[in-house]
User: What shape does this take?
Amino acid sequence: MTQKPGSVQINYLRPPDRREVFIQRLLLDKPKVKITLAESVPFDPPILIHGKVALETGSDVVWFTFPGLWHDIGLFHRADGTFTGIYANILTPPVIRPNGIWDTTDLFLDVWVDPQGILSVLDEDQLLEAEAKGWVTVGEARRAREEVERISADHVAGRWPPAIVDEWTLKRARQSSSSISQAAQRRPTSR
Assistant: This one.
């Protein structure tokens, strides 16, 4: 996969050995938060959460990566742009290299907040299986559970998701992506 200008390459390990590479448009690059846009994701069949479509082919996802934290956050949408929920993927803090390449490992647990604000924890069975098979360490499994507990407590207290997640709607992300593309097209090429 070739990394485009203004994008990041996310090397994602799902233990034990499933490796995926995601190329996403980098919309905001601050020390405490990175915002990316995954455009027109290819999910066929669709991703269902609690029996409802959360992502499908053609969906866009606005991702929030917080350096040093053990989760990222995705604003999930249907292909028509309908918001379906907030998804927190529990993972190792990403290693963010200066060349736009990020490395992280999935820790199986996920948190889902539906459009009504109801939080649920997903894939606990997958973490138990990963522990039993030695795909994650005891420390990683413990840290994943602690992250879910922290997110849940902060959600109840009204502190999660962080305010920046509400500020960056899909509309804003698409506008930012379009502006980045237009700016890249206007840049003079060297001869």
Notes: Residues 110 and 122 are 5 Å apart (CA to CA).
